[in-house]
Amino acid sequence: MPDYKIKKVAVVGSGDMGSQIAAHMTNAGLSVLLLDIVPRNMPDRSVLAKEALAKMQRAEPSPFMHPENAKLITPGNLEDDLDKCSDADWIIEVVLENPRVKSDLYRKIDVVRKEGSIVSSNTSTIPLQILVNGQTEKFARDFLITHFFNPPRTMRLMELVVGKKTSPEAVQTIEDFCDRALGKGVVRCKDVPGFIANRLGLYFLQCGVNAAFDLGLSVEEADAVFSASAGMPKTGIFGQYDLIGLDLMPQIVESFLSTLSSGDPFCTANVRHPLIEKMIAGGYTGRKSKESKGGFYRHVKTETGVVVEAIDLVKGEYRESRKAKLETILAAGDNLRALCDAPDKIGKFAWNVLSRFLAYAAEHAPQIADDIAAVDAAICLGFNWRWGPFELIDKLGAKWLADKLKVEGRAVPELLQKAADCCSFYRVRNGNMEHLVSQDKYKPMVRPEGILLLDDIRYASSPVARNKVANVWDIGDGVLCFEFHTKMNTIDDSTLSLLKDTIAQVEESGGKHKGLIIYNEGHMFSAGADLKKILFQITTSRFSDLSNLLRCGQDVFHALRFARFPTVSAPAGLVLGGACEISLHCSAIQAHAETYMGLVEALIGVIPGWGGCTQMLGRAIVAKRASDDPFATVFRLFETISQARKSKSAFDARDLAFLRETDGITMNRDRLLFDAKQRLLKMAENYTPPEPLKLNLPGLAGCKALHKIIEDKRAEGKILPHDVVVQKSLATVLCGGEGDADAIVTEAQLLELENREFMKLGRLPETIARIEHMLKTGKALRN
Q: Are 414 and 422 in contact (CB under 8 A)?
């Protein structure tokens, strides 16, 4: 771990948010003291913190990136253990949103904390100037607001509010630590109610809920409107409301209303809906806790499985959820203006919500942030939007929006009028993105040191090579970057063709190019091979084409693995099947912490066929424990691949052998490409390609032993008939065929076995059924 100034943290408040903040600190490798009050009539005075820790260890998804991280948390209580905060470099308060409660706590903390330690509040509603009122000068100097978003592990936004007396050293320490160690996008906010993301984001949700009731939209229709054209998550309006919590929203809003002026549109948008009040009273509070009976959506177990139900906004009764009629949305595509111009209720809804929200953002941006870029960053990071409000205005056209507001007799915010006069809020000038700061003046977007994004490179250059599915970029210092850009970044013959050409380009550059990084900035690295094309080849009996695709993949990945230059895979998000195989063939992997990696081919009735089994065998045997025999190593690998295990983080991927101990992990997604590039340049100084694998494998004896395990599982009802067939093929490959035990098996022989067994499975109707079901439902078929 890098030598950060923050080495130990204390978190005061073990509720859902406080405990999860504590957990995420352990993901950065820190030890954490977790404190809460002493409850009445309880023999264990630290029971609240202990129960919070136990709850997190049971939670799924886990707030811990690795189960062992839970051992880094020490639970305690505020009466017996507050003095232990004296060891903490950073003390985070996460207690009731009550200024008096917080103020009393701060005075106690100030007595025990060490000189120079930093104290922050996770408040989302109370201005900093109120929190430091009555505190010592020393405390005010070391105090700031660090507003994490829930869940802290995966939500990237951290809003930072700095007081007039806060020391620059404290600000720099927290900003750097949260960025690099915790992986946060740190956005500085002004000291106003709700800061940026909640102030604007919750106003958007309020407008959406009100418009849906007024215009008679179903919850499914409202949630479908903004996904394609505005780049918002499919949770939409009501799904997001469920995630926040129907009962929590009124509390947040009430806190805002106590500090906002009565004329603020946020206040007028606070409409009480009897249905929502009835739902809260009945325990239907959304998806934020298991105790809730449901929200606008709920999952109901039936004899045939789990059924998703949605509430009817008119009748107030649940019914089976149905896909929204999307004609207007499909017709608009990604044309946001066309969506807002549509004459039906969908178009009216889109315009009603967006026009109010965008005008509100333009009116209040100068009061809540230093510039529009901070506003857009906060909304994108805090609510998982693709574009922030000012980027959305540019998609609509600033002049178009201003003119339409004028036609309706509505006020045009001064900031919006400036953009309308200048044409846009953002522009590209001399290869750099700039944003509007005043009338006719633009300021270049400046990234912090160590952040390298393809999105920025696009503004300044064109790909050095491209086809319909991938681009190759020159990212400087002699490094090329290969980028997938298909739907779900799937891999097909066109991907492989360009990758093959790119490898040759680097090889033949005479040292001009030092190496190749495989990376993209999509929500997922890649879902693997293009199943639609594979299914077409199988169902049309084009088995020679399928075999050629397998051979092509093996050949290209072989060239990647044995290239005379280093190659680095830089994955983030889902890295499945063929995408995992690409990464396994690279010289090194620099993974984002939230990397979910796996060879999941068994789910569609086949085995890895592009060298995944082969490379995992090599890694597992090299890393095996001294006490292991070849079969024990093969068995662990068999369990991983046959059960289609997918890592729950990059740290978990190390346990599963998808990552080696020498592979790197980056916490901040925006720093991934830069870190991968630095790793590659270091490797290029003295790079030597690896030697081909020659492995001692258990052969026929191993196959028989695995077959016995497989048959026992079938007898116990743990696996189904086609699982048996797939797993026996996998056993053949992992054992190196059916030869003598401990015979030397070469890399080429293993690849041949992969091809043979894949082709055998690909012809079976059970495999076809699995692939069809996966493409149709996104879920695995058990047959």
A: no
Q: Report how far apart, in Å, the C-alpha atoms of 269 and of each of 196, 209, 211, 353 are.
A: 17, 10, 10, 11
pLDDT band of residue 1 (cuts 50, 70, 90) is low
Reported CATH class of domain 8-189:
alpha beta
Give percent of the chain with pLDDT exceeding 70. 99
Dist CA 595 CA 712 (whole Å): 33
Phi, psi of 281 (to 5 degrees): -60, -30
Answer positive or negative: Cα dihedral of 534, 537, 539, 544: negative
Rounded to whole angstroms, the Cα distance separating 373 from 370 reads: 8
Peptide bond into 151 cis (omega under 30): yes
Note the pLDDT tens digit of each residue in 455-493: 999 998 999 999 999 999 999 999 999 999 998 999 999
- Do 355 and 401 form a contact (C-beta atoms < 8 A)? yes
**Annotated domain spans of the chain:** 8-189, 209-366+384-422, 469-600+646-689
Residues 6+ apart with CB under 8 A from 192: 127, 199, 367, 368
Distance CA 246, CA 224 (A): 20
CATH fold label, 209-366+384-422: N-(1-d-carboxylethyl)-l-norvaline Dehydrogenase; domain 2 (1.10.1040)
pLDDT at 262 over 90: no
Q: Which tokens belong to 771?
A: 């692939």
Going by the DSSP 8-state scheme, the letter that residue 459 receives in this structure is H
Kindly indicate the confidence band of residue 741, based on its pLDDT and cuts at 50, 70 and 90: confident
| Nearby residues of 304 by Cβ (< 8 Å), 6 or more positions away | none
Say which amino acid occupies 379: I
The span from the CA of 683 to the CA of 666, in Å, is 17
Buried b (16+ CB within 10 A) or exposed e, 276-306: beebbeeebbbbbeeebebbbbbeeeeeeee
- What's the predicted TM-score (pTM) here? 0.94
Distance CA 57, CA 651 (A): 16
- Give tens-digit pLDDT for 527-575: 999 999 999 999 999 999 999 999 999 999 999 999 999 999 999 999 9
Q: Which two tokens stand for residue 114?
A: 């060490």
Per DSSP, the three-state class of 92 is strand
For residues 598 and 644, the answer to whether their CB atoms sit within 8 Å is: yes
Question: Which residue type sits at 776?
Answer: K
Say whether the peptide bond before residue 61 is cis (omega within 30 degrees of 0): yes
Are the CB atoms for 589 and 575 separated by under 8 Å? no
What is the strand order of the sheet 305-311 is part of?
A: 297-302, 305-311, 318-320
pLDDT tens digit sequence for 292-317: 889 999 998 887 778 899 999 999 99
| Tens-digit pLDDT profile for residues 352-394 | 999 999 999 999 999 999 999 999 999 999 999 999 999 999 9
Does residue 625 register a pLDDT over 90? no
What pLDDT score was predicted for residue 328? 83
If DSSP codes are grouped into helix, strand and coil, which group holds residue 681? Answer: helix
469-600+646-689 fold: 2-enoyl-CoA Hydratase; Chain A, domain 1 (3.90.226)
Cα–Cα distance, 383 to 18 (Å, whole number): 20
